[in-house]
Specification:
Strand content: 25-35%
Helix content: 10-25%
Largest sheet: 5 strands, mixed
Radius of gyration: 19 Å
Number of strands: 26
Shape: globular
Oligomer: single chain
Strand order of the largest sheet: 2-13-4-3-12
Distance between the termini: 34 Å
Number of helices: 7
């Protein structure tokens, strides 16, 4: 109860201002400006779930859940603001880099995505107030989402519908809902669960794509012609403040040793609760690479439920990538490149292996959702 009040308190000022809004009206992960590397996600094509017409496209394979779908509903808690009390951005506008540089600090976080023809940055300072931006990229309807309580930025195909903020949380993580079927979709799990507005949705997983968590300076250097989500969202503007703390430097809620606002499912104390890991999950299990360890090592081999993996670090964007590596191919780190036994060189984002979706997350959230995860730190 105390935590409920705390969440309400930190958002109170923002909700009050948003209540007076003016009206409302990939994609991701390719990180080399010259690259057309396919997205390391499930893609953006797909059919709406059977029996759920109008819903978002779903993936062929279902992601693992930490329990029965109905049990996840039972463990959902109110985050304080009601349904759509944190309003999604549904008619986003974008500005050029020179205009954005007037109000973004070089070290401020942004969530970047690059496609064949479009490159966009979504500032954390804006999404912390909205959590979801329903956008169209390269002609494809997508949603770029951010949960400040679990430190997760993720992209999803949305089809003809849009996603909104349900006002509920699981393991401190945002539960989205789609406005066509009113199905609940926990962000990190990316899979439908029953909810009060749709009691028996098909249990399918969303089609997701990588969003790169980096800084404005890094993103705009690599992508100098990127478009930037505008502060002109149609809502009252409080984008210079963060209701939870600061990433520049990390303070308040974002400090690695601070406790989550709500009851955490994570009991794994191998890392401080808000240490950033780069996590990957699939039907065979989950694995997490501690981000600082990856920065230092540049390359870490790992295992996820028997599947051999290799993670690489990109110093230009301060991010990591994870690949399936069944043949245990070896790559030597030389400066910013990864050199194969053939002496061919590759960037961190373009190893000649199948890249698997991976994303930044706070350790408590990752280990809570995936308690059997392997950890490389």
């Amino acid at each position: 109860m105390t935590q409920y009040v705390t969440r309400r308190a930190v958002l109170a000022a923002g909700v009050a201002s948003l209540a007076g809004c003016l009206g409302r009206g990939p994609v991701g992960g390719a990180v080399n400006p010259s690259s057309t590397t396919p997205d390391d996600g499930t893609g953006l094509d797909g059919e709406p779930p059977k029996g759920n017409p109008g819903g978002p496209p779903t993936a062929q394979d279902r992601l693992p859940l930490p329990g029965e779908p109905s049990s996840l509903r039972d463990r959902a808690v109110s985050g304080g603001p009601p349904k759509d009390g944190i309003p999604s951005i549904d008619s986003p506008a974008f500005v050029a880099t020179d205009e954005a540089s007037d109000w973004i600090d070089p070290s401020d976080p942004v969530f970047g995505l690059a496609t064949g023809t479009e490159t966009k940055a979504y500032p954390q300072s804006i999404l912390v107030w909205h959590e979801i931006c329903n956008d169209v990229v390269d002609g494809t309807p997508v949603s770029v989402t951010y949960c400040p309580l679990t430190g997760t930025a993720m992209g999803f195909a949305r089809g003809e519908t849009t996603f909104g903020v349900s006002g509920r949380l699981v393991n401190n993580n945002l539960i989205m809902y789609d406005r066509a079927t009113e199905t609940w979709w926990p962000q990190v799990l990316a899979t439908a669960i029953p909810g009060p507005w749709n009691e028996s949705p098909p249990i399918r997983s969303l089609r997701e794509f990588r969003v790169v968590w980096t800084t404005w300076e890094r993103w705009s250097t690599v992508h100098p012609h990127t478009k930037v989500l505008s502060r002109e969202t149609g809502f009252a503007q409080r984008y210079g403040s963060d209701p939870y703390g600061s990433y520049n430097p990390r303070r308040g809620y974002y400090e690695p040793d601070s406790t989550p606002l709500f009851v955490s499912w994570g009991e794994d104390d191998r890392l401080p609760p808000k240490t950033v890991v780069i996590g990957t999950r699939a039907a065979d299990g989950a694995a997490a690479f501690e981000k600082n360890a990856l920065r230092e090592g540049r390359r870490i081999e790992g295992n996820r439920g028997g599947s051999q993996l290799v993670a690489t670090y990109d110093p230009h964007l301060d991010t990591g990538y994870v690949y399936e590596n069944p043949s245990r191919a070896q790559f030597e780190v030389r400066d910013d490149t990864f050199v194969a036994e053939s002496e061919d060189s590759f960037t961190a984002a373009e190893l000649p292996l199948e890249r698997t979706l991976a994303f930044d997350a706070m350790w408590f959230a990752w280990s809570g959702f995936y308690p059997e995860t392997t950890l490389y730190d």
